[in-house]
């Protein structure tokens, strides 16, 4: 499995016709001086969930690409899971900026994200959930997921869109 580095997340990667990450620098440019809304859509075994967030902003590199927002506007996706990422710095496998001491959540989950801890939400992980042999005491997996209520949803599709806030 390929581990993407900070420079990949900063510059962006993928194909805009399919799997794609715009890039933290581009997201910062879009959000730092304009009022924007973030819309998240995810699929779990064919069922769709969504979330809308107003005032979404990503700071620049000097502020560790910290993510902030004004409020969650609505949606069927767990508000609590996204709230855990508010004011967090963007972490990658080679740049641990999460709130967990010795554990690098991005490395552990195989994808960069605004982690407060390792289990609430990460939309940049592997497509397929993969059994993690290092967690023998529980059926722990890695993959794109979100904690939605009382259980983790393993995602088969994620989409994040930014638009000007009306």
TrEMBL record:
<dbReference type="GO" id="GO:0005615">
    <property type="term" value="C:extracellular space"/>
</dbReference>
<dbReference type="InterPro" id="IPR050373">
    <property type="entry name" value="Fibrinogen_C-term_domain"/>
</dbReference>
<protein>
    <recommendedName>
        <fullName>Fibrinogen C-terminal domain-containing protein</fullName>
    </recommendedName>
</protein>
<dbReference type="InterPro" id="IPR002181">
    <property type="entry name" value="Fibrinogen_a/b/g_C_dom"/>
</dbReference>
<feature type="domain" description="Fibrinogen C-terminal">
    <location>
        <begin position="1"/>
        <end position="127"/>
    </location>
</feature>
<dbReference type="Pfam" id="PF00147">
    <property type="entry name" value="Fibrinogen_C"/>
</dbReference>
<dbReference type="InterPro" id="IPR036056">
    <property type="entry name" value="Fibrinogen-like_C"/>
</dbReference>
<dbReference type="InterPro" id="IPR014716">
    <property type="entry name" value="Fibrinogen_a/b/g_C_1"/>
</dbReference>
